[in-house]
Design goal:
Layout: E1 20-24, H1 30-39, E2 43-48, H2 52-61, H3 70-76, E3 79-82, H4 89-98, E4 107-110, H5 121-125, E5 129-135, H6 144-148, E6 153-157, H7 163-172, E7 176-179, H8 185-212, H9 218-236, H10 244-247, H11 250-263, H12 268-284, H13 290-313
Parallel strand pairs: 1-2, 1-3, 3-4, 4-5, 6-7
Antiparallel strand pairs: 5-6
Helix pairs in contact: 11-13, 12-13
């Protein structure tokens, strides 16, 4: 069930009181969320960071907010943002709980896409109020991130009694709550990573190939094309598929593979994997004619076999 649109205010009784906010982990996400909460009237009071880069980021985005150890952050704040890498989160929660840093009634919010609220169970047993609020956005670690939160979807997982509080906090940050079941968090996160993280890799590889082909400004060439492709895909899904694979142009695909082997061998396996997936989806949705699919899939299979043989020939 989706939450109301941000333009619809939450139940006033669920609106959080003005809270003191702390950040444990001054990476790219935490300071941006703290800034958004400050704009909503909350008060950042403490932040912790380990690396020099995180400490500089905190000082730039949260000027005047003291840099202190994590336990001190929890001591000072009513609402604590745990914005650390996924793999570090369980140990952090366990450590803070075992040392008595967690206070009863304290809102403890993590921003991991992978985990739901259950990763905060040690803190919950100590009396904390657990929320999983994951912004579905890529962050730069700069002030522009705060602006990007406007209209950003948040994957939200929370105990039933805290759903209204979670909704209110997300809306105050400019976001739109999307409720994710506890057991669905890894799948939810995989979908986002597949779409966003892998997109960066694909775009970077495409720009490298265009530069090798002599294109002076590959970003300018790709920008309008990728923008249109993304818009079409979001609107139409598989019906937006175009290009030689969807058309069944086996000869063109074979030429692509040949050129990639010569000029960018590191891209061959990725090209073949995506081409095969694209062919399967185009065939399933009636875009790729069956009589053309056979030759295309044959080219892809032969190219994959050749790539495997090349990798095996040097002992890898």
């Amino acid at each position: 069930m989706n939450a109301p649109h941000p333009t619809e205010p939450p139940d006033p009784s669920a609106r959080p009181a003005r809270l003191s906010v702390g950040v444990v982990g001054a990476g790219r996400v935490g300071p941006a969320l703290a800034c958004a909460l400050r704009l909503a009237g909350h008060r950042p009071v403490a932040v912790s960071g380990v690396s020099d880069a995180s400490r500089r980021r905190a000082e730039r985005m949260l000027p005047g907010v003291p840099l202190v150890p994590p336990a001190r952050v929890l001591e000072l704040a009513d609402l604590v943002l745990l914005t650390v890498p996924d793999d570090a989160l369980p140990g952090l929660v366990q450590g803070l709980s075992e040392t008595g840093a967690v206070r009863p009634g304290q809102l403890l919010v993590h921003t991991s896409g992978r985990y739901g609220a259950s990763v905060l169970d040690p803190a919950r047993r100590a009396g904390a109020l657990p929320l999983a609020l994951h912004p579905a956005m890529t962050f730069t670690g700069t002030e522009v991130d705060v602006q990007r939160l406007a209209g950003c979807s948040f994957g939200v997982t929370a105990p039933e009694e805290l759903r209204l509080a979670a909704q209110a906090l997300v809306i105050e940050m400019g976001g739109e709550p999307e409720w994710i079941a506890e057991e669905a968090r890894p799948l939810y996160h995989a979908g986002l990573a597949l779409g966003a993280n892998h997109l960066v890799t694909l775009v970077a590889q495409a720009m490298e190939l265009l530069r090798k082909a002599g294109v002076e400004h590959p970003d300018r060439m790709l920008g309008p094309l990728l923008g249109a492709a993304l818009d079409n895909a979001l609107r139409s899904g598989d019906a937006a598929l175009t290009g030689p694979v969807a058309r069944g142009d086996a000869g063109t695909v074979a030429a692509h593979v040949s050129e990639l082997r010569k000029h960018a061998p590191g891209t061959v396996s990725g090209y073949l994997a995506m081409a095969r997936t694209t062919a399967d989806r185009a065939l399933a949705h009636g875009l790729l004619k069956p009589e053309l699919a056979e030759d295309l899939l044959g080219v892809l299979a032969d190219s994959a076999d050749a790539a495997g043989g090349a990798e095996g020939s040097d002992g890898r």
